[in-house]
Amino acid sequence: MKLSHLIKTIFFLALGFFLALSIVLSPSLTGAIAIQDVPNPRVEYGGWVTDMANLISPATERELNQLIDSLEAETTAEIAIVTVPDTDPFPSVKTFTTELFNTWGIGKKGKNNGILFLTSFGDRRVEIETGYGIEPILPDAQILDILNRHILPYFTNNDFDTGILEGTRALIDVLSGETFEGAIIDKDPFF
Fold it and tell me: Which of 69-78, 120-129, 178-187 has the lowest mean pLDDT?
């Protein structure tokens, strides 16, 4: 009788330990972000901006939504703008961005003309993910130039609001066929 009582005690202690461990390591409690926890602004309110890191003012968010609405009406291209506190537990911001881009299906079906402009505040990193239909118009070298000329100068001064707005305007200029001038500067997309 004592042995069975001991086995039951050990079983319930182990069960309690594993339950406590799963709660402690739960992404929602540790601050880690899962892709499904990032609200899709198209589904939530018909917009283009999800600001989980609180880097964008309401006025700038309205302006971004208007700019992207106009771009979509003119070209059918889509730009989603997302800020997150960090991308833990993903191995990289790039991995998180690519998975979010694919999960949301940014861009028109068959055209693959979407862009995800993601800022991870805690990782101090910006990623711009493009669909295959955008790549000929906006190659990686041009994205790097936009980062270096229109986004990072503001981000290094903690002016994320302006950096996101100016970066979005530069992306829209390229997608709208505007002349884009800029020298490519070899820097990483860190701020």
Answer: 178-187
> What are the DSSP calls for the chain, one per residue?
-HHHHHHHHHHHHHHHHHHHHHHHT-HHHHT---GGGS--HHHHTS-SEEETT--S-HHHHHHHHHHHHHHHHHH--EEEEEEES--TTSS-HHHHHHHHHHHHT-S-TTT--EEEEEEETTTTEEEEEE-TTTTTTS-HHHHHHHIIIIIHHHHTTT-HHHHHHHHHHHHHHHHTT-----------SB-
Owning domain of residue 26: 1-30
pTM for the model: 0.78
Regarding whether 8 and 85 lie in a shared domain, the answer is no
